[in-house]
Amino acid sequence: AESSIPEPQRAAWKKNTPQEFQTKDEFLSEAVRHIETTLARSLFNCDESAAYGGTALAFRDRLVMEWNKTQQNQTTADQKRVYYLSLEFLMGRALDNAMLNTNMKGPAKDGMGELGFRMEDLISQERDAALGNGGLGRLAACFLDSMATMNYPAWGYALRYKYGIFKQEIHDGYQVEVPDYWLDFNPWEFARHDVTVNIQFYGGVRTYQDDNGKTHSSWEGGEIVEAVAFDVPIPGYGTATTNNMRMWSSKAHSGEFDFQKFNSGDYEGSVADTQRAETVSAVLYPNDNLDRGKELRLKQQYFWCAASLHDIVRRFKKTRKPWKEFSNNVAIQLNDTHPTLAIPELQRILIDIEGLEWSEAWEIVQNTFGYTNHTVMQEALEKWSVPLIQHLLPRHLQIIYDINLNFLQYVEKKFPKDRDMLRRVSIIEESEPKRVRMAFLAVIGSHKVNGVAELHSDLIKTTIFKDFVQIYGPDKFTNVTNGITPRRWLHQANPRLSELIASKLGGHEFLKDLTLLNKLENHVDDKAFRKEFQEIKYANKVRLAKHIKNTTGVSVNPAALFDIQVKRIHEYKRQQLNIFGVIHRYLAIKAMNAEERKKLAPRVSIFGGKAAPGYWMAKTVIHLICKVGDVVNNDPDVGDLLKVIFLEDYNVSKAEIITPASDISEHISTAGTEASGTSNMKFVLNGGLIIGTCDGANIEITREIGDSNIFLFGNLAEDVEELRHNHLYGKYELDDGLRKVFDAIQAGRFGDANQFSALVNGIVDHGDYYLVSDDFNSYCKTHDLIDESYKNQEEWLTKCITSVARMGFFSSDRCIDEYAEMIWNVEPVKPKAEQVNGG
Ligand code: CR6
């Protein structure tokens, strides 16, 4: 309040309030002004990158004005806010999203056209904001879009990595990682040099008694790193609401820059210290579904949690409400266990700094947090070593032990004498060294825990959190099936399909209420509609074929069946099953005569995805795909019948080109391992069918679109344990078809067989943990069925259209409404009437 312009002076301000452009001419004048002044370029020096910059800055101005009003409006509304804590946000590009969400793409396109630029070229100048690994990070980005679109008062809290996920290059069929320095020109962020938080590390705990003889603890000493806020506006679609994503960047604390060293001539030493502080937010850890327990990662987690909580608490304190109102004002969602330290941190703030009693504080903590689990795989569950936490965060370790003590006493009362239960559910794992089980801490410190698809939410209740269901009852655990934003994944990625749908449904309402898509089923027999739908798919395939030609040099036939698997490379996702299937197909083609070959449907097998830099098996899979491509693509016997492509550097902006171009996409994880998957939803929404296992959201997709519209295969989650057991005890036989594939690999038909021995041996000799052999036959047969079905183009088209019509459930808008109602208890805040972008 102290910093606001006094009432009598406000008229002068209001007279000068900047206006938002509404027409092509107004837009162009803003863009040109930015090119000339903000970017200092001229009529004679304006390339595509400058034109992109000017366009982005003109849109940024617009977003900022709505953003300011939204923040003001949400503050006065004084309702409960949501804070989404995620260590990953895979945002992709922002310009097209800003143009579409403000409904101003047309004028901008025309304006830039007058200067001789094509909007697609300008859009592709932007670097992806790639602050994430895969589905988890992209989910967070979709949620931000949905929360803004539905007017929820919500903030995302992120870490501002200097380097996002690495850029992948393929050299001689091997992945090479190149650093992604994305901040050279980022018009979408605002440095808030005045919004900083000092974050403490190391040091020790001092206990002391106050005048009443009560004991207190205080964390003292150690070192300080400063957190600086950078804000990014998040525009909703067809609403004036523009929310905030706040990213924290680390820098040396000004008091910490060692003037002693500096003055005594050790200039380099003092600069080295500042660099050490900056490393905290330097780089995103490039592992998907894998925990490596590195100290710097723990520092990142605490740095970001502590800065965010400080910010949230500061905002709450401005309301001057009593502490017991905290959880009526604040909901914090933990995206996986990465932000779990927020739990002991809030408890610390409340008891050590604000002076609340333990139990009063703990009730606030539990009512504030919700925790989303994204995996049941052991290697992905975070467990931090106790000595490491002791060293870095001594007070937090004490608090974690106290939380554990209280919890175990509660369990002991409920289940007297069950020693084994106590051992199983303890936050502290009695290993050497001891480790803190972050998922258990997250469950204990939250009021709701959710999985991300029905099967997954059931599985967590019977596996990793089984005991906790006994302890707390089943109501603490719930399901929110993942979703995707139809704005980016339909309207932006597939504009022609979006327009076609709009023409049939009488407008773009479906982009805000995706269930309206069901009305498309009325048009499934409409000839003109069918033809247009098919043409759009073909055009999207042509666009991808061009991209393939430009990036790999290989020509593919757009009339062939495009079979796509793009996602992180992981053994559980089974790209190896896919490439073995491709080899099987290749061997079959080689064995055919000309007549038989004529009957075959031409295929293009397309792969894409990054392997974590230290994940050798995943890198081997990439190498095999590339080598198979080299052989198959150059075999004159094969011609158009089969092409194998590995697309370099799969990311969000490439996904926008790839997703609309599939006939079939692959979601073939070992049953029970893929918590949800979200690209499955994107592909079906864009009129592609899928082949998949009964895993994650595939199951609910099947329920929605009907089992005749999906190609399911393979063993079920409930059979996995027994099958694995059989492998270990020799009670199985390697699949015949797969043996032939291995023979071909071992004969060196795809280059040096030694390169692939670990991959083959993992299946033949080491237990085939992901059950590739068990599912191979049904996988290949299902692909034969796909070939047959594709020959009947009319029936295929009906399946595609019907599926699109039935995908309404998978909007991230639906997810966010479920979180808001079941977990957060928050309501939307309507934007003020005078805000412009309103619908
Ligand atoms: N790797 C799951 O594996 C899910 C997303 C988002 C994942 C994936 O099935 O769709 O989360 N899990 O819920 C983790 O990252 C731990 C993922 O992206």
Provide a short characterization of the protein structure.
It contains 34 helices and 24 strands. It is α/β, with parallel strands linked by helices and 839 residues long. The chain is globular, with a radius of gyration of 28 Å.
Question: What attributes does this structure have?
Answer:
Rossmann fold; 839 residues; allosteric enzyme; globular; 34 helices; 6-stranded parallel β-sheet; binds 1-deoxy-1-acetylamino-beta-D-gluco-2-heptulopyranosonamide; pyridoxal phosphate; alpha/beta; transferase; 9-stranded mixed β-sheet
Q: Classify the secondary structure makeup into a structural class.
A: alpha/beta
CATH architecture of the largest domain: 3-Layer(aba) Sandwich
CATH T-level topology of the largest domain = Rossmann fold
> What is the typical, i.e. mean, pLDDT?
97
* Residue share in helix: 40-55%
Q: CATH superfamily membership of the largest domain, which one? A: Glycogen Phosphorylase B
End-to-end separation in angstroms reads 32 Å
Low-confidence stretches: none
CATH class of the largest domain: Alpha Beta
Strand content: 15-25%
How large, in whole angstroms, is the Cα Rg? 28 Å
Tertiary shape: globular
Report the biggest beta sheet as strand number plus sense, adding barrel if it closes: 9 strands, mixed
Strand order of the largest sheet: 7-10-11-4-1-12-13-17-18
* Ligands and ions found: 1-deoxy-1-acetylamino-beta-D-gluco-2-heptulopyranosonamide
Number of helical regions = 34
| Total number of domains | 3
Total beta strand runs = 24
Q: How would you explain this protein's 3D organization?
A:
- Allosteric enzyme that catalyzes the rate-limiting step in glycogen catabolism, the phosphorolytic cleavage of glycogen to produce glucose-1-phosphate, and plays a central role in maintaining cellular and organismal glucose homeostasis.
- GO terms for molecular function: glycogen phosphorylase activity; pyridoxal phosphate binding.
- This is Alpha-1,4 glucan phosphorylase.
- Belongs to the glycogen phosphorylase family.
- Its cofactor is pyridoxal 5'-phosphate.
- The protein has 839 residues and is an alpha/beta fold.
- It folds into 3 domains: 20-77 and 95-127, no CATH class; 80-93 and 128-381 and 442-481, Glycogen Phosphorylase B (Rossmann fold); 540-804, Glycogen Phosphorylase B (Rossmann fold, 3-Layer(aba) Sandwich), CATH 3.40.50.
- Helix content is 47%, strand content 15%.
- It contains 34 helices and 24 strands.
- The strands form 6 sheets. It has a 9-stranded mixed sheet. A 6-stranded parallel sheet has the order 21-20-19-22-23-24, with helices on both faces. A 3-stranded antiparallel sheet has the order 14-16-15.
- The longest helix is centred in the first third of the chain and has 30 residues, at 48-77.
- The radius of gyration is 28 Å and the shape is globular.
- It starts with 9 loop residues before the first helix and ends in a 15-residue tail after the last helix.
- The model has no long low-confidence stretch (mean pLDDT 97).
- Bound molecules: 1-deoxy-1-acetylamino-beta-D-gluco-2-heptulopyranosonamide.
- Residues 134-136, 139, 288-289, 336, 374-375, 380, 452, 482, 674-678, 696 line the site of 1-deoxy-1-acetylamino-beta-D-gluco-2-heptulopyranosonamide.
